[in-house]
Amino acid sequence: MQKSKNSKTIKNAKHKWLKFLAAVLGLAIANGSFMQTTIAANAGPAKKDFAPYMKLVQSKIKWTPPGKTTATSVSITFTVGKTGSISDVKVKEPSGDKIVDQLALDTIKKSAPFPPLPPGENTLEITFTLPCQSGVTASGVDLNPYTDEIFKRIHSCWWVPKRLLFMQVGLSFEINKDGSLAKVSVDKSSGDKNADRLAIIGVKRAGPFKPLPEGVEAPFRLTYNAGFRNDHDKDFYIWNGERFNSGQSYTTAGGSKVGHKDNTTEKDKAFNLRKEEALIKMSELDEQIQKESKINPDSLKLVPLLVQYAGQDRLIEEHTEALAKLREALAIARKTPQGNEKELAQSLCALGAAEYNLGHAQEAEPLLKEAINLKENILKSQDKELKELLETYARLLYKQGRVKEYEEISKKAREITAT
Protein backbone atom coordinates (compact mmCIF):
# COMPACT_ATOMS: atom_id res chain seq x y z
CA MET A 1 0.00 0.00 0.00
CA GLN A 2 1.32 3.41 -0.90
CA LYS A 3 2.22 5.53 2.11
CA SER A 4 0.80 9.05 1.74
CA LYS A 5 -1.44 11.52 3.49
CA ASN A 6 -4.35 9.57 2.03
CA SER A 7 -3.15 6.20 3.36
CA LYS A 8 -5.48 6.25 6.37
CA THR A 9 -8.43 7.16 4.17
CA ILE A 10 -7.60 4.40 1.74
CA LYS A 11 -7.10 1.86 4.52
CA ASN A 12 -10.57 2.71 5.82
CA ALA A 13 -11.88 2.50 2.28
CA LYS A 14 -10.42 -0.98 1.93
CA HIS A 15 -12.10 -2.02 5.16
CA LYS A 16 -15.39 -0.54 4.03
CA TRP A 17 -14.99 -2.22 0.66
CA LEU A 18 -14.67 -5.65 2.29
CA LYS A 19 -17.70 -4.97 4.47
CA PHE A 20 -19.60 -3.65 1.46
CA LEU A 21 -18.67 -6.66 -0.59
CA ALA A 22 -19.69 -8.98 2.24
CA ALA A 23 -23.06 -7.26 2.36
CA VAL A 24 -23.50 -7.53 -1.39
CA LEU A 25 -22.54 -11.17 -1.29
CA GLY A 26 -25.02 -11.84 1.47
CA LEU A 27 -27.72 -10.41 -0.73
CA ALA A 28 -26.53 -12.10 -3.86
CA ILE A 29 -26.37 -15.58 -2.44
CA ALA A 30 -29.58 -15.37 -0.47
CA ASN A 31 -31.21 -17.15 -3.41
CA GLY A 32 -28.95 -20.18 -2.97
CA SER A 33 -27.49 -21.78 0.10
CA PHE A 34 -28.89 -19.13 2.45
CA MET A 35 -32.43 -20.44 1.90
CA GLN A 36 -34.07 -23.41 3.49
CA THR A 37 -36.56 -25.34 1.40
CA THR A 38 -39.09 -28.08 1.94
CA ILE A 39 -41.38 -29.73 -0.61
CA ALA A 40 -44.48 -31.84 -0.54
CA ALA A 41 -45.14 -33.78 -3.75
CA ASN A 42 -48.66 -34.78 -4.72
CA ALA A 43 -47.57 -37.63 -6.95
CA GLY A 44 -48.08 -40.83 -4.98
CA PRO A 45 -46.00 -42.71 -2.45
CA ALA A 46 -42.84 -43.06 -4.54
CA LYS A 47 -40.00 -40.90 -3.18
CA LYS A 48 -38.27 -38.83 -5.85
CA ASP A 49 -35.17 -36.70 -5.95
CA PHE A 50 -36.32 -33.13 -6.45
CA ALA A 51 -32.93 -31.57 -5.72
CA PRO A 52 -32.13 -30.75 -9.39
CA TYR A 53 -35.52 -29.12 -9.85
CA MET A 54 -35.26 -27.19 -6.59
CA LYS A 55 -31.91 -25.82 -7.71
CA LEU A 56 -33.60 -24.44 -10.84
CA VAL A 57 -36.32 -22.85 -8.73
CA GLN A 58 -33.80 -21.32 -6.33
CA SER A 59 -31.80 -19.83 -9.19
CA LYS A 60 -34.86 -17.80 -10.25
CA ILE A 61 -35.65 -16.38 -6.81
CA LYS A 62 -33.70 -13.14 -6.42
CA TRP A 63 -34.25 -12.42 -2.75
CA THR A 64 -32.72 -9.29 -1.27
CA PRO A 65 -33.14 -9.10 2.51
CA PRO A 66 -34.50 -5.75 3.71
CA GLY A 67 -31.93 -3.19 4.78
CA LYS A 68 -33.28 -2.49 8.26
CA THR A 69 -35.31 -5.05 10.18
CA THR A 70 -35.08 -7.06 13.36
CA ALA A 71 -36.71 -10.04 11.64
CA THR A 72 -34.56 -13.13 11.18
CA SER A 73 -36.52 -15.11 8.57
CA VAL A 74 -39.85 -15.51 6.81
CA SER A 75 -41.35 -18.70 5.34
CA ILE A 76 -43.41 -18.58 2.15
CA THR A 77 -45.34 -21.52 0.77
CA PHE A 78 -46.74 -21.89 -2.74
CA THR A 79 -47.81 -24.51 -5.25
CA VAL A 80 -46.09 -25.03 -8.58
CA GLY A 81 -48.22 -26.36 -11.43
CA LYS A 82 -47.18 -28.75 -14.17
CA THR A 83 -46.07 -25.93 -16.52
CA GLY A 84 -44.24 -23.98 -13.81
CA SER A 85 -46.99 -21.52 -12.96
CA ILE A 86 -47.64 -20.88 -9.25
CA SER A 87 -50.71 -20.51 -7.06
CA ASP A 88 -51.69 -20.30 -3.37
CA VAL A 89 -48.75 -18.06 -2.48
CA LYS A 90 -48.95 -17.25 1.22
CA VAL A 91 -46.95 -16.65 4.36
CA LYS A 92 -46.50 -19.85 6.32
CA GLU A 93 -44.34 -18.50 9.15
CA PRO A 94 -44.41 -14.70 9.41
CA SER A 95 -41.28 -12.71 10.24
CA GLY A 96 -43.02 -10.38 12.64
CA ASP A 97 -42.48 -7.52 10.20
CA LYS A 98 -45.38 -6.96 7.77
CA ILE A 99 -43.19 -5.10 5.30
CA VAL A 100 -40.76 -8.04 5.16
CA ASP A 101 -43.60 -10.52 4.72
CA GLN A 102 -45.05 -8.54 1.82
CA LEU A 103 -41.61 -8.19 0.22
CA ALA A 104 -41.14 -11.96 0.41
CA LEU A 105 -44.54 -12.60 -1.19
CA ASP A 106 -43.83 -10.12 -3.98
CA THR A 107 -40.40 -11.69 -4.60
CA ILE A 108 -41.83 -15.19 -5.06
CA LYS A 109 -44.59 -13.92 -7.37
CA LYS A 110 -42.11 -11.95 -9.52
CA SER A 111 -39.84 -14.99 -9.80
CA ALA A 112 -42.55 -17.07 -11.47
CA PRO A 113 -43.08 -18.85 -13.75
CA PHE A 114 -40.62 -21.56 -12.80
CA PRO A 115 -39.41 -24.39 -15.05
CA PRO A 116 -41.98 -27.12 -15.85
CA LEU A 117 -42.20 -29.85 -13.23
CA PRO A 118 -40.33 -33.13 -13.69
CA PRO A 119 -42.19 -35.79 -15.75
CA GLY A 120 -44.99 -37.46 -13.84
CA GLU A 121 -45.57 -34.50 -11.48
CA ASN A 122 -48.73 -32.44 -11.63
CA THR A 123 -48.23 -30.16 -8.63
CA LEU A 124 -45.51 -29.48 -6.11
CA GLU A 125 -45.97 -27.65 -2.84
CA ILE A 126 -42.84 -25.74 -1.88
CA THR A 127 -41.88 -23.79 1.22
CA PHE A 128 -38.99 -21.35 1.16
CA THR A 129 -37.58 -19.94 4.37
CA LEU A 130 -35.90 -16.67 3.43
CA PRO A 131 -33.23 -15.07 5.66
CA CYS A 132 -33.69 -11.44 6.66
CA GLN A 133 -30.21 -10.64 7.99
CA SER A 134 -27.37 -10.09 5.54
CA GLY A 135 -24.83 -12.90 5.57
CA VAL A 136 -26.93 -15.12 7.89
CA THR A 137 -28.65 -18.27 6.67
CA ALA A 138 -32.29 -19.01 7.33
CA SER A 139 -31.16 -21.50 9.98
CA GLY A 140 -29.15 -18.80 11.77
CA VAL A 141 -25.60 -19.61 10.62
CA ASP A 142 -23.53 -16.41 10.40
CA LEU A 143 -21.48 -16.76 7.22
CA ASN A 144 -19.92 -13.29 7.28
CA PRO A 145 -16.54 -14.43 8.74
CA TYR A 146 -16.37 -17.27 6.21
CA THR A 147 -17.25 -15.12 3.19
CA ASP A 148 -14.98 -12.27 4.33
CA GLU A 149 -12.05 -14.70 4.30
CA ILE A 150 -12.99 -15.92 0.82
CA PHE A 151 -13.16 -12.35 -0.52
CA LYS A 152 -9.78 -11.49 0.93
CA ARG A 153 -8.19 -14.56 -0.65
CA ILE A 154 -9.72 -13.87 -4.05
CA HIS A 155 -8.66 -10.25 -3.88
CA SER A 156 -5.09 -11.28 -3.08
CA CYS A 157 -5.02 -13.71 -6.03
CA TRP A 158 -6.88 -11.66 -8.63
CA TRP A 159 -4.48 -9.87 -10.94
CA VAL A 160 -4.84 -7.97 -14.19
CA PRO A 161 -2.55 -5.52 -16.00
CA LYS A 162 -3.37 -1.82 -15.73
CA ARG A 163 -5.17 -1.77 -19.08
CA LEU A 164 -7.77 -4.25 -17.77
CA LEU A 165 -8.28 -2.82 -14.27
CA PHE A 166 -11.43 -0.98 -15.31
CA MET A 167 -13.04 -4.01 -16.93
CA GLN A 168 -15.69 -5.32 -14.53
CA VAL A 169 -16.42 -9.05 -14.57
CA GLY A 170 -19.39 -10.58 -12.76
CA LEU A 171 -18.58 -14.09 -11.53
CA SER A 172 -20.42 -16.87 -9.76
CA PHE A 173 -18.83 -19.94 -8.24
CA GLU A 174 -19.78 -22.91 -6.10
CA ILE A 175 -17.91 -24.38 -3.15
CA ASN A 176 -18.09 -28.02 -2.12
CA LYS A 177 -18.44 -29.17 1.48
CA ASP A 178 -14.66 -29.65 1.81
CA GLY A 179 -13.94 -26.14 0.50
CA SER A 180 -12.90 -27.18 -2.99
CA LEU A 181 -14.28 -25.28 -5.98
CA ALA A 182 -17.08 -27.02 -7.84
CA LYS A 183 -17.18 -24.56 -10.74
CA VAL A 184 -16.56 -20.93 -11.69
CA SER A 185 -18.40 -19.09 -14.44
CA VAL A 186 -18.89 -15.59 -15.84
CA ASP A 187 -22.32 -14.13 -15.15
CA LYS A 188 -21.62 -10.79 -16.80
CA SER A 189 -18.76 -10.40 -19.25
CA SER A 190 -16.51 -7.36 -19.20
CA GLY A 191 -16.39 -7.40 -22.98
CA ASP A 192 -12.72 -8.35 -22.93
CA LYS A 193 -11.85 -12.03 -23.22
CA ASN A 194 -8.63 -11.80 -21.22
CA ALA A 195 -10.23 -9.77 -18.42
CA ASP A 196 -12.91 -12.46 -18.08
CA ARG A 197 -10.35 -15.27 -18.06
CA LEU A 198 -8.09 -13.55 -15.54
CA ALA A 199 -11.05 -13.02 -13.20
CA ILE A 200 -11.86 -16.75 -13.32
CA ILE A 201 -8.18 -17.54 -12.81
CA GLY A 202 -8.12 -15.31 -9.72
CA VAL A 203 -10.93 -17.29 -8.09
CA LYS A 204 -9.34 -20.63 -9.00
CA ARG A 205 -5.96 -19.59 -7.63
CA ALA A 206 -7.61 -18.50 -4.38
CA GLY A 207 -9.07 -21.98 -3.79
CA PRO A 208 -9.40 -24.36 -2.19
CA PHE A 209 -11.08 -22.59 0.70
CA LYS A 210 -11.83 -23.76 4.21
CA PRO A 211 -14.58 -26.40 4.59
CA LEU A 212 -18.10 -25.00 4.71
CA PRO A 213 -19.37 -24.12 8.20
CA GLU A 214 -21.63 -26.63 9.88
CA GLY A 215 -25.24 -26.22 8.84
CA VAL A 216 -24.45 -24.91 5.36
CA GLU A 217 -25.45 -27.13 2.47
CA ALA A 218 -23.20 -27.79 -0.49
CA PRO A 219 -22.71 -26.68 -3.14
CA PHE A 220 -22.51 -23.17 -1.69
CA ARG A 221 -22.98 -20.52 -4.39
CA LEU A 222 -21.32 -17.11 -4.27
CA THR A 223 -21.04 -14.15 -6.59
CA TYR A 224 -18.11 -11.78 -6.99
CA ASN A 225 -17.36 -8.66 -9.03
CA ALA A 226 -13.76 -8.33 -10.20
CA GLY A 227 -12.54 -5.06 -11.64
CA PHE A 228 -13.02 -1.34 -11.21
CA ARG A 229 -15.82 0.73 -12.64
CA ASN A 230 -14.32 4.01 -13.81
CA ASP A 231 -16.36 7.13 -14.39
CA HIS A 232 -14.21 9.00 -16.90
CA ASP A 233 -16.47 12.06 -16.90
CA LYS A 234 -15.88 12.83 -13.22
CA ASP A 235 -12.93 13.17 -10.89
CA PHE A 236 -13.54 9.91 -9.05
CA TYR A 237 -13.95 6.22 -9.69
CA ILE A 238 -15.88 3.46 -7.95
CA TRP A 239 -14.35 0.19 -6.74
CA ASN A 240 -17.07 -2.27 -5.71
CA GLY A 241 -19.24 0.52 -4.42
CA GLU A 242 -16.51 2.58 -2.72
CA ARG A 243 -15.66 6.04 -4.06
CA PHE A 244 -12.01 7.02 -4.55
CA ASN A 245 -11.38 10.68 -5.34
CA SER A 246 -8.89 11.98 -7.88
CA GLY A 247 -5.41 11.79 -6.40
CA GLN A 248 -6.18 8.79 -4.27
CA SER A 249 -4.77 5.42 -5.20
CA TYR A 250 -5.14 1.79 -4.33
CA THR A 251 -2.51 -0.92 -4.66
CA THR A 252 -3.75 -4.21 -6.09
CA ALA A 253 -2.56 -7.66 -5.07
CA GLY A 254 -0.35 -7.68 -8.15
CA GLY A 255 1.42 -4.53 -6.96
CA SER A 256 -0.18 -2.16 -9.47
CA LYS A 257 -0.92 1.34 -8.22
CA VAL A 258 -4.44 2.18 -9.32
CA GLY A 259 -5.56 5.72 -10.03
CA HIS A 260 -6.68 7.84 -12.98
CA LYS A 261 -3.20 8.13 -14.41
CA ASP A 262 -1.38 5.13 -15.83
CA ASN A 263 2.13 5.48 -14.41
CA THR A 264 3.25 1.94 -15.32
CA THR A 265 6.84 1.88 -16.59
CA GLU A 266 7.74 0.19 -19.87
CA LYS A 267 9.59 -2.50 -17.92
CA ASP A 268 6.53 -3.16 -15.79
CA LYS A 269 4.29 -3.19 -18.86
CA ALA A 270 6.49 -5.88 -20.42
CA PHE A 271 6.33 -7.95 -17.24
CA ASN A 272 2.57 -7.43 -17.01
CA LEU A 273 2.10 -8.66 -20.55
CA ARG A 274 4.27 -11.70 -19.79
CA LYS A 275 2.31 -12.40 -16.63
CA GLU A 276 -1.03 -12.01 -18.41
CA GLU A 277 -0.01 -14.52 -21.07
CA ALA A 278 1.50 -16.88 -18.48
CA LEU A 279 -1.60 -16.93 -16.26
CA ILE A 280 -3.83 -17.73 -19.22
CA LYS A 281 -1.46 -20.48 -20.38
CA MET A 282 -1.35 -21.88 -16.83
CA SER A 283 -5.14 -21.95 -16.74
CA GLU A 284 -5.22 -23.95 -19.97
CA LEU A 285 -2.58 -26.36 -18.65
CA ASP A 286 -4.44 -26.71 -15.36
CA GLU A 287 -7.55 -27.87 -17.20
CA GLN A 288 -5.51 -30.49 -19.07
CA ILE A 289 -3.83 -31.61 -15.84
CA GLN A 290 -7.16 -32.01 -14.06
CA LYS A 291 -8.64 -33.93 -16.96
CA GLU A 292 -5.68 -36.34 -17.18
CA SER A 293 -5.51 -36.74 -13.37
CA LYS A 294 -9.11 -37.94 -13.28
CA ILE A 295 -8.22 -40.69 -15.76
CA ASN A 296 -4.98 -41.70 -14.03
CA PRO A 297 -3.32 -39.63 -11.28
CA ASP A 298 0.03 -41.30 -12.08
CA SER A 299 -0.14 -40.91 -15.85
CA LEU A 300 3.16 -40.11 -17.55
CA LYS A 301 1.22 -37.66 -19.72
CA LEU A 302 1.09 -35.42 -16.67
CA VAL A 303 4.88 -34.99 -16.57
CA PRO A 304 5.28 -32.67 -19.61
CA LEU A 305 2.15 -30.75 -18.59
CA LEU A 306 3.50 -30.12 -15.10
CA VAL A 307 6.91 -29.14 -16.48
CA GLN A 308 5.26 -26.64 -18.83
CA TYR A 309 3.17 -25.27 -15.97
CA ALA A 310 6.30 -24.80 -13.85
CA GLY A 311 7.94 -22.99 -16.73
CA GLN A 312 5.11 -20.44 -16.73
CA ASP A 313 5.42 -20.12 -12.95
CA ARG A 314 9.08 -19.27 -13.34
CA LEU A 315 8.33 -16.66 -16.02
CA ILE A 316 6.27 -14.69 -13.52
CA GLU A 317 8.71 -15.35 -10.67
CA GLU A 318 6.52 -17.79 -8.73
CA HIS A 319 9.49 -20.01 -7.94
CA THR A 320 8.08 -21.87 -4.94
CA GLU A 321 5.05 -22.93 -6.96
CA ALA A 322 7.30 -23.95 -9.87
CA LEU A 323 9.41 -26.21 -7.64
CA ALA A 324 6.26 -27.85 -6.27
CA LYS A 325 5.02 -28.68 -9.79
CA LEU A 326 8.41 -30.03 -10.86
CA ARG A 327 8.71 -32.24 -7.77
CA GLU A 328 5.24 -33.56 -8.50
CA ALA A 329 6.30 -34.34 -12.08
CA LEU A 330 9.45 -36.16 -10.89
CA ALA A 331 7.47 -38.20 -8.35
CA ILE A 332 5.08 -39.36 -11.10
CA ALA A 333 7.96 -40.21 -13.44
CA ARG A 334 9.68 -42.33 -10.77
CA LYS A 335 6.54 -44.36 -10.10
CA THR A 336 6.59 -45.97 -13.53
CA PRO A 337 9.01 -48.95 -13.46
CA GLN A 338 9.86 -48.94 -17.17
CA GLY A 339 9.29 -46.95 -20.32
CA ASN A 340 9.57 -43.74 -18.34
CA GLU A 341 13.09 -42.70 -19.35
CA LYS A 342 12.02 -39.75 -21.50
CA GLU A 343 9.66 -38.30 -18.86
CA LEU A 344 12.13 -38.99 -16.05
CA ALA A 345 14.90 -37.16 -17.91
CA GLN A 346 12.57 -34.24 -18.65
CA SER A 347 11.54 -33.81 -15.03
CA LEU A 348 15.11 -34.22 -13.73
CA CYS A 349 16.44 -31.63 -16.19
CA ALA A 350 13.73 -29.09 -15.35
CA LEU A 351 13.94 -29.52 -11.58
CA GLY A 352 17.74 -29.56 -11.56
CA ALA A 353 17.91 -26.34 -13.59
CA ALA A 354 15.28 -24.66 -11.40
CA GLU A 355 17.11 -25.57 -8.20
CA TYR A 356 20.41 -24.32 -9.65
CA ASN A 357 18.92 -21.00 -10.79
CA LEU A 358 17.64 -20.43 -7.25
CA GLY A 359 21.10 -21.05 -5.83
CA HIS A 360 20.26 -24.46 -4.38
CA ALA A 361 23.47 -26.17 -5.48
CA GLN A 362 23.21 -29.04 -3.03
CA GLU A 363 19.73 -29.95 -4.25
CA ALA A 364 20.55 -29.34 -7.92
CA GLU A 365 23.73 -31.44 -8.29
CA PRO A 366 22.30 -34.97 -7.81
CA LEU A 367 19.39 -34.12 -10.12
CA LEU A 368 21.67 -32.82 -12.86
CA LYS A 369 24.03 -35.80 -12.57
CA GLU A 370 21.18 -38.30 -12.77
CA ALA A 371 19.71 -36.51 -15.78
CA ILE A 372 23.07 -36.46 -17.59
CA ASN A 373 23.63 -40.16 -16.92
CA LEU A 374 20.14 -41.01 -18.13
CA LYS A 375 20.48 -39.05 -21.37
CA GLU A 376 24.02 -40.24 -22.15
CA ASN A 377 23.82 -43.92 -21.21
CA ILE A 378 20.18 -44.91 -21.60
CA LEU A 379 18.57 -42.50 -24.04
CA LYS A 380 21.86 -42.17 -25.96
CA SER A 381 21.00 -38.60 -26.82
CA GLN A 382 23.40 -35.95 -28.04
CA ASP A 383 20.99 -33.08 -28.37
CA LYS A 384 20.62 -29.42 -27.43
CA GLU A 385 18.95 -30.34 -24.13
CA LEU A 386 21.97 -32.44 -23.08
CA LYS A 387 24.33 -29.63 -24.11
CA GLU A 388 22.41 -27.12 -21.95
CA LEU A 389 22.30 -29.62 -19.10
CA LEU A 390 26.06 -30.09 -19.21
CA GLU A 391 26.63 -26.34 -19.33
CA THR A 392 24.44 -25.84 -16.27
CA TYR A 393 26.28 -28.53 -14.36
CA ALA A 394 29.61 -27.05 -15.45
CA ARG A 395 28.63 -23.63 -14.08
CA LEU A 396 27.64 -25.26 -10.79
CA LEU A 397 31.08 -26.94 -10.55
CA TYR A 398 32.90 -23.72 -11.44
CA LYS A 399 31.11 -21.77 -8.72
CA GLN A 400 32.22 -24.40 -6.21
CA GLY A 401 35.83 -24.15 -7.32
CA ARG A 402 35.91 -27.70 -8.71
CA VAL A 403 37.98 -26.66 -11.72
CA LYS A 404 39.05 -30.10 -12.97
CA GLU A 405 35.49 -31.43 -13.00
CA TYR A 406 34.32 -28.18 -14.58
CA GLU A 407 36.80 -28.57 -17.45
CA GLU A 408 35.74 -32.18 -18.09
CA ILE A 409 32.05 -31.34 -18.26
CA SER A 410 32.66 -28.22 -20.37
CA LYS A 411 34.61 -30.32 -22.87
CA LYS A 412 31.66 -32.71 -23.17
CA ALA A 413 29.34 -29.79 -23.86
CA ARG A 414 31.65 -28.39 -26.56
CA GLU A 415 31.91 -31.81 -28.23
CA ILE A 416 28.14 -31.91 -28.63
CA THR A 417 28.32 -28.56 -30.41
CA ALA A 418 30.94 -30.00 -32.80
CA THR A 419 28.81 -33.01 -33.79
Any overview of this molecule?
The protein folds into three domains: 137 residues, Fusion Protein Consisting Of Minor Coat Protein, Glycine Rich Linker, Tola, And A His Tag, Chain: A, Domain 2 (2-Layer Sandwich); 97 residues, Fusion Protein Consisting Of Minor Coat Protein, Glycine Rich Linker, Tola, And A His Tag, Chain: A, Domain 2; 153 residues, Serine Threonine Protein Phosphatase 5, Tetratricopeptide repeat, CATH 1.25.40.10. With 419 residues, the chain is of the alpha+beta class. Helix content is 48%, strand content 16%.
Low-confidence segments, given as residue ranges, are: 1-33, 41-45, 231-241
Cα separation of the termini:
55 Å
Question: Biggest sheet, strands in spatial order?
Answer: 1-4-2-3
Classified in CATH, the superfamily of the largest domain is Tetratricopeptide repeat domain
Question: What does the radius of gyration come to?
Answer: 28 Å
- Shape from CA axes? elongated
